[in-house]
Amino acid sequence: MLKIAVIGAGRWGPNLIRNFHENERSHLTWVVDWDQERLDQVGLRFPEAKLSRHAEPALDDDTVDAVVIATPPSNHKELVQLAIKRNKHVLVEKPFTTNSQDAEELCSLADEHGIVLMVGHVFIYNNAVRAIKQIIDRGDLGRIYYIWMLRTNLGAIRTDVSAAWDLAPHDISIANYWLSAEAVQASAMGRCWINPGFEDAVFATLLYPEDVLVNLTVSWLNPRKVRDITVVGEKKMLTFDDMNLKEPVRIYDKGVSDEVTRIPYVDTFSSFRSSIYEGDVSVPRIETGEPLRAQCDHFVECAIRGKRPETDGQDGLAVVRTLEAIDRCLRASNPVQVLQ
Q: In three state form, how does the secondary structure of the chain look?
């Protein structure tokens, strides 16, 4: 049994607490949160867990094997560092850290101590995301041209990080996973309408190796909750709607034929249509499951067996590097004027 302490019982913490409590190979030993009222609620639900408003008692408990950190990102470095130095395996929620230097230091520290360090990029454990990875790797879509990713909702509006740092880690981690690469260039624009210094909406474009473009739209000022991704390839196209639990993935046998480059002159509707082909739409069968449960199971497995997680510290570092690049673009603010 892996004895686990969960630090942070706020918005996401209760989901982690539930999963580790229900896992047959883990034992929920501690729950830490600064809010006493929240701790009291945890105590009623999980009476066997020890409670504390401070992390030190849980970190100093020699019986604790692993620490799960679900606090604001500004606390991640300190808590991860303390846990590693006490030889506790660590699962830390996204974003890994608030800057790449801290992430690099924590990766090195974990390697020095032989500690399993995992970052909670939960979508990598989504069955649909994993199925799409197989589709791309098999070459079913052909060469990938671009990926368009939309993640919006009305709230929750954060006051500690921007919409980019709150929402975009999901999509960046997915893009890195699907393309087996890290972005090499970034451009972005955003605006701070609600809280100065924290963008409420960010529109970013990333360039990946093989000339693949990835466009991100993230916002917590939108009337609709949308979790939608489109992958456009030379042979086929694919959509992923995370809000559609029954049919999240659709594959479109649609594209542009080679006739586009061979027709010297097109002046009729029928001839224009002939250069575009539209085949069938297929819906692959994907087993349902809770991605967070799969993520927690994977962490327990890695911690018990000393395996490197799929979303390890290096994976978290790659996402943070991209977020930093987006931030640099937002701060540069040098758009080209339309009217000179």
A: CEEEEEECCCCCHHHHHHHHHHCCCEEEEEEECCCHHHHHHHHHHCCCCEEECCCHHHHCCCCCCEEEECCCHHHHHHHHHHHHHCCCEEEEECCCCCCHHHHHHHHHHHHHHCCCEEEECHHHHCHHHHHHHHHHHHCCCCCEEEEEEEEEEECCCCCCCCHHHHHHHHHHHHHHHHHCCCCCEEEEEEECCCECCECCEEEEEEEEHHHEEEEEEEECEEEEEEEEEEEEECCCEEEEECCCCCCCEEEEEEEECCHHHHCCCCCCHHHHHCCEEEEEEECCCCCCCCHHHHHHHHHHHHHHHCCCCCCEHHHHHHHHHHHHHHHHHHHHCCCCCCCC
